[in-house]
Design goal:
By secondary structure, the chain is an alpha+beta fold. It has three domains: 3-61, no CATH class; 65-210 and 292-328, no CATH class; 216-287, no CATH class. The protein is built from twelve helices and 17 strands. The strands form six sheets. It has a four-stranded mixed sheet. It has a three-stranded mixed sheet with strand order 5-4-6. A three-stranded antiparallel sheet has the order 10-15-14. The longest helix is centred in the middle third of the chain and has 21 residues, at 102-122. It starts with a helix and ends with a strand. It binds zinc ion. Zinc ion is lined by residues 125, 127, 129, 132-133.
């Protein structure tokens, strides 16, 4: 099916206002075709608002799984059991800014659920360590942090994102995907091969909307010159290497290092950086926050503000995927 007939199909299914939403993004991005084909599959499933309000329905395939309970390992080593849906809400409370738009929170809910099912199937291990698995808060945790009134408002918002996408996960080639996500990216996300090793057809570099004036996205880190030289076992002039609008490396003398490795080695906020000299230090000016692979949380919010629905957002960040609904055999 051509891109044009996809657009027509999409218009028929969802109505013109969503289309306007996705064409308004400077015409650079179109909905993934594999994603569109997912709309035609098997069991009929009505997507919740705002599409529901438009009288639209989307067909979604089913994915059979027994993984609907999470045994969560807490920081103190204790384990606690809960439903997958309860866990998803707890991760959203800890990982997503509460002021983000509804569709961005729903996209995150699907990513969190998918990432969790992937891990449950792979190892069964789920812990609360943010750099290993995903951060997690209970309602009591956020009451302590923000007071009960604010906590209740935030909880209701995250619960809505979970409930309105209940059981929904992303598949590639019939299997749940490694739906990694990060806080924000500069202009492009990174392919998984660059950060985690190994190619994944759904974790490729995609363009992201970036508000480069947003001060919160720009940070500075100082690294003493002698630390940089001794860590990298290299010496000489230091320069960031860019491939078009994507930072890919750091050149030190005649050696070049991958920018993602530089981020991990020196604890930088992001692998997108410029570098300058200041006395005995190198100063890294970084753009964005996190490893840069998969869904950008702030990018999702910007798209949601521009009228994208949660699954348009998901299909943009996770290429060649389709939405499915979990079906428990028990
Ligand atoms: Zn873990």
């Amino acid at each position: 099916m051509s891109a044009f007939s996809h657009a027509i199909l999409y218009t028929l299914l969802l109505g013109a206002s969503v289309i306007t939403g996705f064409f308004s993004y400077e015409g650079r991005i179109s909905l993934n075709s594999q994603g569109l084909e997912a709309l035609e599959i098997v069991e009929e499933y009505a997507v919740s608002s705002p599409l529901e309000e438009m009288g639209a329905s989307v067909k979604m395939e089913e994915y059979e799984s027994d993984e609907t309970t999470v045994e969560l390992t807490l920081e103190n080593g204790e384990k606690t059991k809960m439903s997958l849906e309860e866990y998803v809400t707890g991760v959203l409370l800890a990982e997503m800014p509460s002021w983000y738009s509804e569709e961005a929170l729903k996209a995150a809910a699907v990513a969190v659920r998918t990432y969790t099912v992937y891990n449950l199937e792979a190892s069964g291990h789920i812990c609360t360590h943010p750099s290993h698995c995903q951060a997690f808060y209970t309602f009591e945790n956020i009451c302590d942090l923000w007071g009960e009134k604010s906590a209740r408002e935030v909880y209701e918002k995250m619960l809505f994102a979970t409930e309105s996408t209940e059981g929904e996960i992303l598949l590639y080639d019939g299997e749940p995907i490694l739906a990694v996500y990060h806080a924000s990216s500069y202009l492009h996300t990174r392919p998984s091969s660059e950060v985690f090793g190994g190619d994944r057809a759904y974790l490729v570099s995609v363009s992201v909307p970036f508000e480069d004036e947003a001060e919160t996205q720009i940070r500075k880190s100082r690294v003493p010159k002698h630390t940089l030289y001794s860590t990298l076992k290299a010496e000489g002039g230091v320069d960031a290497v860019w491939d078009g609008s994507r930072c890919v490396g750091l050149r030190v003398g005649d050696k070049t290092f991958a920018s993602s490795d530089i981020r991990s080695l020196f604890g930088l906020a992001s692998a997108s950086f410029e570098v300058s000299e200041d006395g005995e230090d190198y100063v890294f000016k970084t753009y964005g926050y996190g490893h840069g692979v998969g869904l950008s949380q702030s990018g999702a919010d910007i798209l949601a503000q521009r009228g994208w629905s949660y699954f348009e957002i998901l299909f943009h960040y996770y290429k060649n995927t389709s939405l499915a609904i979990l079906k428990n055999n028990e």
